Amino acid sequence: MTRGRPLLIGLGLVILAAAPVDAHTGGSTGYATIAIEDARVRYQVTLWPAALPPAAGEQIRRAHGGDTASRDHLVQMIREKIGIVADGGRCEPGAGDLRAGPPLGDSVTVAVEFACAGRGREVLIRDDVFDVLGPDHHTLARIDTPARTLQFAFSPDARETRIDRLGDTGGTASFVWLGIEHILTGWDHLLFLLMLLLRGGGWLSLLKIVTAFTVAHSITLSLAALDLVALPDRLVEAVIALSIGAVAAENLFLRPVVSRRWLVSFCFGLVHGFGFSAALRELGLPRQNLLLSLFGFNAGVELGQAMVVAVALPVLLWLGRTRWEPRVIWSSSLAVLLVSLVLFVERAFL
Prior knowledge:
This protein is of the alpha+beta class. It has eleven helices and twelve strands. It has helices at about 5-15, 55-65, 70-80, 130-135, 170-185, 185-200, 205-225, 235-255, 260-280, 285-320, 325-350, and strands at about 30-35, 40-45, 80-85, 90, 90-95, 95-100, 110-115, 120-125, 140-145, 150-155, 160-165, 165-170. The longest helix has about 35 residues, at about 285-320. The two termini are about 45 Å apart. Mean pLDDT is about 80; it is low at about 1-25.
C-alpha cells in the first residue's frame, strides 16, 4: 500500500499536467456593445466559433460564408435569448441583421434593435445565450447610455444587470467572478505556479514566490488593459508556454536555488499578466470606466489563485517531508515539460 502512494501522487500531478492543451482561454467569449437611447436599445455582439460547441461553431462558419438559413438562425437566437425590460415593460426585438468579419477570420457580428415603451430610466438586461453556446461561454459587454459607459461580464451565473440613472448595480462584482473563473480554468497559469512551488522550499520561500507572481502579473495586467503597453497575443501565449517548460526543466535538470525562485516567478509573472489582460482589452472601454473592471478582474484572479495555493501548499509541504518527493517531482515535471512543448508549438506555429 505504501509503495503505491508515490505512484498515485505522481499520477495525479501528471493528469493535472496533461489537462486541456487549449487551457488559457477558459471557454469562449463574445464581445457585446449595448447602446441605450431613450425608447430603443441596440444590442450588438461579435462571436467566434473556435471554442464554441461544434454545432454552434459550424453555424457561425456557415453564416460567415453567406448561408441565409444560418444567418437567420443566429439572429433569431439573439432575439430570443437576449431580454430587455425598460421601466418595467418588455422591449420588443426588431428583425436584426448580421455582418461577417474579415475574410481571413470567421467571426460574425449580430445586431438587434429593441423597441421599448418606457424611456429607459431603468433598464434590465438579461443574457441567456449560454443555453445555446454552452456553460463555458462569457459575454463581455460595454453598455453605452446617454450619460456614461458601463461594463458587465455576463456568464451562466451572472445573467442579469440593471442600469438606472444612479449607476450600474453589479458590474465590478461580475468581473470579480470572471477573474476567479479565468484563473481556475487557466491551466497554463496554474501549471506554471505549481512547477514553481514544487521545489520552492519552506513557508517563507513559498510566500515570496506567490507574492512575486501576484505583483508581477498585476503590473502588466494593468499596463496592458489600459493600453499603455501592448504585445502581440501570439507572442505572449507562446512565451507563457515556454515559461512553464523552463521551470519544469529546471526541476528536472538543475538544482533550483530556492532563494532566487521568487525572481523567476516575478519575471515570468510579468508575461502572464499580458495573458490575463486579453479579455479586457477587447472591450475598448474608456479608461476611467475600465479601472473598476480591472480592479474587480484582478481581485478575482487573486482570490482564485489563493484558493489553489491554499489547497496545494499543505500537500507540497507534506510531500517535502517524505521519501517520495524526488520521484513525484521528476514524474510531474517531465509531464509538464512535454505539455509545455506541445503548447508552445501550437501557439507559436499553428
